[in-house]
Amino acid sequence: MLITKPERGFWCECWTEDFTTDARPALRASFDAYTAPEADRWVAVALRTISPALDPDAPYEVWEWLYHGRIDTRTALLLEEPCTVTVTNATTRITWTIRLVTFLPLAHRQDADLPPCTDAFKPHTPR
């Protein structure tokens, strides 16, 4: 979606945190949604995708959110409140965050027209 003026939407992120290390949480994915349904659908698709690979206790958390918590999330988003969905799998916490933002035309990251300098870029080839 190409935006030409500031537009309200939702910024969605997925973070992981490994409890066995001192490493800081790591950003794994981000998504720009323009509606509340689009934002919560991003989380729902991710949860459905990873649920078969989770340890036996985690799918309960996933399905609990998909069937009950998702309603609360959608309601909060429609009220323009930030939301967090968290699942713990073994030693890893996976957290999705969604918050209201204003997207600026300059900040859009899916514009198909790249600047002319990209033609001069030569990828590094390993020796």
Strand share of the residues?
Answer: 25-35%
**What structural class do the secondary elements suggest?**
alpha+beta
- Total of helices: 2
The biggest beta sheet, please?
Answer: 4 strands, antiparallel
- What is the residue-averaged pLDDT? 84
The percent of residues in helical segments reads 25-40%
* H/E topology pattern: EEHHEE
Radius of gyration from CA coordinates: 18 Å
**Unreliable stretches, pLDDT < 50, 5 or more residues?**
none
Distance between the termini: 39 Å
Would you report the number of β strands?
A: 4
**Major sheet: arrangement of strands:** 2-1-4-3
Overall shape? globular
How would you portray this structure in words?
This protein has 2 helices and 4 strands, in the order ββααββ. A 4-stranded antiparallel sheet has the order 2-1-4-3. The chain is globular and about 50 Å long. Strand 1 (7-18) and strand 2 form a beta hairpin. The protein has helices at residues 36-50, 58-78; strands spanning 7-18, 26-33, 83-89, 92-103. The longest helix has 21 residues, at 58-78. With 127 residues, the protein is α+β, with helices and mostly antiparallel strands.
